[in-house]
Amino acid sequence: MRTALVTAVAGAVVAFLLGLLTFGVQATVHPHDVPLAVVAPPPIAQRVQAADSAEVDLKIVDAAEARNLLAAKEVYGVLEISPGQATIRLNPAVNPSGTQVAQQVLTGVAQGAGLPVKVESPVVSAAERTAPLAASALLWVGGMIAGLLFVVLKGRRFRLLSALLTPVLVTSSVVGLLAWWGVTFSGEALTFMLAVAVSFALLQGGLFKHLGIRAMGVLGVLYLMAPAVAGQVPELLNPVYRAVLWSWTPFRFSTEGLRSLVYDGSISTEWWVFGGIALVGLVLLLTGKEAQTDRADGVVDVGVHQADGLPRAERQHTA
């Protein structure tokens, strides 16, 4: 009776927590101070500024500053208003969720001014929008499955070799899949993907070494919750999710870093993040003892006396 109750309660608690950490992120999405830039003559600029709200942060700037802000990804979109025309400029290196919100809001501003709208943005396919997040998640899954199988197959030696060989093969697999979708990467982007895969595999290998199969309780939950957060921009997230999940998840850094390299080739923080993750994983792999695991049939091995060949418990009973 107690077992039935405990397992049922555990299932309900896990379902609640996973829902809170995954679907809850998407269910509570609402824009907060989304940064946008507007270039307009003074009379129109004043009307636009008056339309500012808690959902958006409209910056009235000149054309040069607006383009610099967009290139630096400090705004999600730019609206340039000239006599008889409104032009919306978007940067494909910015998270698609952010550019979508920017286009909707800025289109509304232009239409409110009674102007026709033209959108200027490089054409990005659905596969290209999906690729950065998909690559990040698949690199994590590939390393996680390899580490899990290493534990299940009771591997002891060459764990470090596995953690270094796995990223090469998993990265090749992911790149091949994305190429089939029609997505190609620069040399630096490929190097970054490999660095991400290495850091993931080292961290996962280290956790599997110290925790055994119990590491799946950590790695599996991270996989389930992180992509839901990494696919959003911070200004769309509930402040609690932004502080508790988005601020540290490695999927955020790998996704945004890869997207930046695909379109403008400039990242810095991301290299340090994954260098740190790789270092932590390497330390875990090279220190401590291997986690002890029970046999597949559920029988725990016991010591055997060298003289009579009987287990200690049986030897004491026969004595």
Q: What can you see in these coordinates?
A:
The chain has 319 residues and is α/β, with parallel strands linked by helices. The chain contains 13 helices and five strands. A five-stranded mixed β-sheet has the order 2-1-3-4-5, sandwiched between helices. β4, α5 (96-112) and β5 (117-120) form a beta-alpha-beta unit. The radius of gyration is 26 Å and the shape is elongated. Mean pLDDT is 83; it is low at 295-307 and 312-319.
Helix content: 55-70%
- Compute the number of helices: 13
Shape verdict: elongated
Distance between the termini: 39 Å
Percent range for β-strand residues: 5-15%
Overall mean confidence score, pLDDT: 83
Q: Name the poorly predicted regions.
A: 295-307, 312-319
The largest sheet has its strands arranged as 2-1-3-4-5
Radius of gyration using CA atoms only: 26 Å
Classify the secondary structure makeup into a structural class.
alpha/beta
Q: How many DSSP-defined strands?
A: 5
Largest sheet: 5 strands, mixed
Order of helices and strands: HHEHEHEEHEHHHHHHHH
